[in-house]
Amino acid sequence: MLRGRLVTGGSVVDDGVLAVVDDRVAFAGPAADWTGELPPPAPGTLLLPGLVDLHCHGAAGHGFPDADAAGVRAAAAHHRAHGTTTLVASLVSAPAAVLRERLAVLAPLVEAGELAGVHLEGPFLSAARCGAQDPAALVPGDPALLAELLAAGRGAVVSMTLAPETAHRAELVDLLRAHGAVPSFGHTDAAAAEVTAAIRSAAPGGPLSATHLFNGMPPLLSRAPGPVAACLAAAARGELVVELIGDGVHLAPETVATVFDLVGPGAIALVTDAMAAAGMADGSYRLGSLPVEVRDGVARLTGASAAIAGGTARLVDVVRATVAAGVPLADAVRSATATPARLLGREDVGELAPGRRADVLVTDLDLSPTAVLRAGAWVHREES
Question: How would DSSP label each residue in 33-77?
Fold first, then answer.
């Protein structure tokens, strides 16, 4: 049994109790409502749901686009020890044979519960907005290739980023829906009208998202509002969820706070876009086939473009930065738990409520993790 400030479902219980039986939450609520013996008050402790990261490329020196199974486990374990108990492994654009090989490595780890699924970031992206994606690996939308990848994934693929202007977009969206995967529009150079049309066509069919809003797309301008304006308007209408990499590098703190004010935490999924350097020192790394240099914790491609190449923060770090930006704690936590869980269609995680899987992140008041419980078992505990 745990006691502290209970933060879940968009609210805060200042003196809360959390009881776990086996791998499930048995009680989560005010200490005054608990009828059994109470642990001592813990006003300096926060009890959060285990975090849910929809967009992550690795950690601890290992990248999901190239690591072997042991490396994938090590990267997932690093994020888990920092409170991310539901983790989707993101790939990057690559030749079909490479994507098939990566799915063969990752699918068994999804089936074993190590990962919550696989996110295909590409290869049906805009070359003009490829960011840290290999432009040589980008191809127009190809339903036959997507069907092949979905079959190779054996149900592990839970989302895919595609540019709304890619060929055969509607057929690709339908294929993803048929396999239970969430379409996510991103890495796009399309005008606002084209993005709006794509969203309105896809939104009625089920969950829909926008991959790392602002990043990998043109800026919002007065006479060229672009994908940013289209996605913000759609999120405000309840048609899609926007990802935000609120790590203090990809977006200004004011940008993050503004999006929360505009669309609310129910339409925002905080993500890391973390790559192999998360949890590591500055130095040389790779993101897929591309070399990356990390300096002062910022990952950039080497060479002329120097594009930001993923993040080095964990999701708890993103939550901390989001709160520092002025977003209420309950809203930041909701966007790192309940909202992404709902987008994945997961009803067992994302909130601390009776019957949910007992995934708990325990932190101090500065959101530094002190313990992590996953499915009722401790995966991290600081020694007192």
Answer: G--SPPPPP-TTEEEEEPEEEEEE-EETTEETTT--HHHHHHHHH
